[in-house]
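STRUCTURE:
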């Protein structure tokens, strides 16, 4: 790759990041709302309500895809842009696997389940990124991300059928996320999720404790002592130390 091409790709990537920064707040709000739209799709029972949530969900997802393609266009669809944002492509494409639910008749049940779980995980990741865009405070960001983790993990527990009630799934997901306590179901998925939530609990709340400790100790340090000034001879031979003047002239 020539120097001019590399410079052009870097400039395009910077313009794309600048555009993303301008769209941070509206896209962040949509990302948080989208997480609840996915929850509504999971809990809805009536055919009309399910259809309404599905349509709204696809509208939101279309906006996310359009925003991503806009940034890619601004970056000139450069290799640097795709290298940096490839993981976003994965989470944008996963929900489209829902179109293959008709394959259940051909015994592709696992693919349909993967599409459903992938949509929940994608919504959770987008919700956590949205919280980071909207909140500048570290403690506020941790609280928002924790809420997103609780919602996403409870949806996964309910979608896998480990809980008959979403309220029970939400309670156990919250306890596992905050305290690291075990989940009631003993399925393989629940055990894996329990380990992940326990690791999250230790890492995040250790960070939170450190942030709170630093905040309360910020004003506890003693004021720095005034450095004693080194005696320096004055012009007339006097010595000045700590505001005192003493004359000590030689004979």
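SEQUENCE:
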């Amino acid at each position: 790759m020539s120097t001019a091409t590399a410079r052009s790709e870097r400039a395009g990537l910077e313009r794309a990041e600048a555009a993303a920064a301008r769209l941070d707040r509206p896209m962040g709000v949509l990302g948080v709302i989208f997480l609840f739209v996915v929850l509504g799709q999971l809990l809805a029972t009536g055919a009309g309500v399910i259809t309404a949530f599905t349509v709204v969900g696809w509208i939101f997802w279309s906006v996310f895809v359009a925003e991503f393609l806009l940034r890619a266009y601004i970056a000139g669809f450069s290799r640097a842009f795709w290298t940096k944002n490839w993981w976003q492509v994965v989470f944008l494409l996963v929900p489209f696997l829902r179109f293959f639910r008709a394959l259940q008749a051909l015994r592709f049940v696992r693919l349909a389940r993967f599409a459903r779980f992938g949509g929940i995980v994608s919504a959770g990741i987008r919700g956590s990124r949205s919280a980071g865009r909207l909140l500048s405070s570290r403690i506020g960001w941790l609280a928002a991300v924790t809420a997103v983790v609780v919602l996403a993990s409870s949806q996964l527990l309910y979608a896998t059928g480990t809980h008959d009630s979403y309220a029970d799934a939400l309670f156990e997901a919250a306890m596992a996320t905050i305290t690291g306590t075990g989940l009631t179901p003993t399925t393989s998925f629940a055990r894996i999720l329990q380990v992940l939530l326990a690791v999250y609990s230790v890492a995040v709340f250790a960070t939170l404790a450190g942030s709170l400790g630093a905040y309360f100790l910020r004003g506890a340090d003693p004021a720095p002592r005034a450095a004693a000034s080194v005696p320096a001879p004055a012009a007339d031979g006097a010595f000045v130390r700590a505001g005192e003047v003493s004359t000590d002239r030689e004979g």
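REMARK: The CA atoms of residues 177 and 201 lie 5 Å apart.
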